[in-house]
From TrEMBL:
Organism the protein comes from: Neoroseomonas lacus
Name of protein: HTH marR-type domain-containing protein
Boundaries of every HTH marR-type domain copy: 18-116
A Pfam family that the UniProt record links to this protein: MarR_2
InterPro entries per UniProt: HTH_MarR-typ, WH-like_DNA-bd_sf, WH_DNA-bd_sf
Molecular-function annotations in GO: DNA-binding transcription factor activity
Length: 135
């Protein structure tokens, strides 16, 4: 059941991104668009989140850079470069998060607010320790 819901969410996120003008993304790129958004993270962390090798992640990061979604830069005197969203990448994430807020509202309406809140709470508990602390 979770897989069916996930598939529905993925289709709707991709449709929302395409409708917002982000038509150049390939299926593989979506693996890097994780929660939280990849902004100020090491490439190795993106690889871990996406459950892929560092080499594969770096290849996809380079593609996302060439498409204008990501940039790598050093912060301060750090020897390693971090991956940041560009303004285009932020706009993409904004369209994705707007879609997700719409899905949350629909599901809360279908299930009722209390049941949906319980569902989210249960999913957060199951996702630990992968889920970052909410801000």
């Amino acid at each position: 059941m979770l897989r069916l819901c996930l598939d529905q969410v993925r289709v709707r996120m991709r449709d929302a991104a395409r409708d917002a003008g982000f038509t150049d993304l390939q299926d593989a790129h979506w693996a890097l668009l994780t929660y939280p958004a990849p902004d100020g993270v090491r490439p190795s962390e993106l690889a871990r989140r996406a459950h892929m090798s560092r080499q594969a992640a770096n290849h996809l990061i380079a593609q996302m850079e060439s498409l204008g979604y990501f940039e790598r830069r050093r912060v301060g005197d750090a020897s390693r470069r971090l991956v940041f969203l560009t303004p285009r990448g932020r706009a993409l994430c904004d369209s994705i998060f707007a879609c997700l807020r719409g899905i949350h509202a629909e599901w809360a309406d279908q299930l009722g607010g209390d049941r949906f809140a319980g569902l989210l709470g249960a999913l957060r508990q199951l996702a630990q320790p992968e889920l970052p602390a909410t801000r």
